[in-house]
Design brief:
Length: about 350
């Protein structure tokens, strides 16, 4: 059951990144692909029915972690207290910018909220990437099972790193370009006219950025965690998933040359899922790696709750996941098709 719940938590995180990821990408790009007020309204109309619902998966993922692995939840949420506070503020600023823009007649205030949406979305993408970088690199867990994570120390990985160092920043920038590509593909799928054409160009540029920064992130990971590559090679699941996300990234490029906009967006989602799943398979069963001593690491085997709780919780999770999944299928079906500026605020 420990293995099952490890993958349940991983699935919840992946679903959140895929769904809320296109919102972040749209927020990052809307200043560049939408030039007029009506065009920016059309961008916000495209994500309007989805962005707040997508955040449910973040809460669900945190709840699953708290339920199944309370020790990992306690260590992570206490050690990352400052970054998590920043995440809350960024999520609030994003929501405020989307909602308040519709209520402002002043062009100056609308520009302010547009800028706020861009900053909050870009920083959230970087923070998500930095969080993944911390999981890969490790945190300074001691024998008590806890750690203190300052925002940064000397900006280098080591036994006592901060949340941000050169490695986690590289992973954060990689997440930014990945979600920018994902958001551009979503807007390309939902919009028409000049905005859709600019989104195609933005997606092509972001795709190139994913390749370049992805190679840089790969070399950085090899320098910080060379053992992870051994895990990928010797674990068939991780290797298959790694090959899968490379193929999915190629499918995005092929899809951009075609007129059908849905296929490259789906390929982008598969790329994100396969990349996160490959990473999870490579680090399993470790959930928080100790940079002080590997013996202090928190794993799925030493951080889980009781067997009875996990068994009952698995049944509840299946029911809840099916209900939530059905709702989101209905949501995307109901608000499928193209959107325009007239749909903004309705």
């Amino acid at each position: 059951m420990e293995t099952l719940w490890f993958w349940i938590v991983s699935v919840m995180v992946a679903v959140y990144v895929v769904l809320d990821g296109f919102d972040f990408g749209a927020g990052v790009l809307h200043l560049f692909v939408a030039k007029t007020d009506d065009e920016r309204k059309s961008v916000l109309a495209a994500i309007g029915p989805f962005w707040d619902g997508n955040e449910v998966w973040l809460l669900a993922g945190g709840g699953a972690l708290f339920f199944a692995f309370p020790a990992a939840y306690a260590a992570g949420f206490s050690g990352f207290y400052l970054p998590l506070t920043m995440v809350l503020w960024l999520l609030m600023l994003r929501g405020l910018s989307i909602e308040f823009r519709n209520k402002e007649e002043s062009g100056l205030w609308r520009s302010f909220w547009d800028g706020t949406l861009f900053v909050a979305s870009a920083l959230m993408a970087i923070v998500l990437g930095a969080a993944l970088g911390n999981v890969v690199r490790g945190v300074p867990l001691d024998q008590t099972g806890y750690f203190t994570g300052p925002l940064f120390t000397d900006f280098t990985p080591g036994a006592h790193p901060g949340v941000l160092d050169w490695f986690t920043v590289v992973i954060g920038v990689f997440a930014l370009v990945v979600l920018a590509m994902h958001g551009a593909l979503f807007l390309r799928m939902k919009l028409e006219g000049p905005v859709a054409e600019r989104c195609t160009k933005a997606a092509e540029t972001a795709w190139l950025g994913v390749v370049v920064v992805g190679l840089l992130a790969t070399f950085a990971t090899a320098a910080v965690r060379p053992d992870m590559f051994d895990q990928v090679v010797h674990r068939p699941l991780s290797l298959v998933l790694a090959i899968g996300f490379v193929i999915a990234l190629g499918m995005v490029k092929v899809g951009l040359t075609q007129k059908k906009p849905v296929a490259p967006f789906v390929a982008s989602a598969l790329f994100i899922v396969a990349m996160l799943a490959s990473t999870a398979a490579a680090v399993f069963p470790v959930m928080l790696r100790s940079t002080i001593d590997p013996q202090f690491s928190i794993t799925a085997m030493n951080a889980h709750t009781s067997s009875l709780s996990m068994n009952v919780g698995a049944v509840v999770w299946v029911i809840g996941f099916a209900l939530a999944g059905g709702y989101f299928v209905y949501l995307f079906k109901t608000f499928g098709g193209k959107t325009t500026a007239d749909d903004y605020g309705h």
